[in-house]
Amino acid sequence: ITGLTIRHVGKCFQHLNDTISQYFHKFVFIFSSLPFYNVYIHMPAMDEVQSGIREGPRFWPFFWNAIGALDGSHIHAALGANDQAAH
Known about the structure:
- This is DDE Tnp4 domain-containing protein.
- By secondary structure, the chain is mostly helical.
- The chain contains six helices and no strands.
């Protein structure tokens, strides 16, 4: 389940929000620790950047110094109520 709040996940699995939060933090710790990180996480080589981005003057200035990409990941981003009118 991605993009859901702890409350939604807790309701789906019938567990307290605190329990869901504890397990979420455990998984973040596991995925960012050795040996998992060294085995499964790697930084892309320059030739892994799509040619449309690497050769395009429209996009490359924004991506030339990017460390990596989150392929297939969805990161929910929302502006606060005060900033929504400005954007």
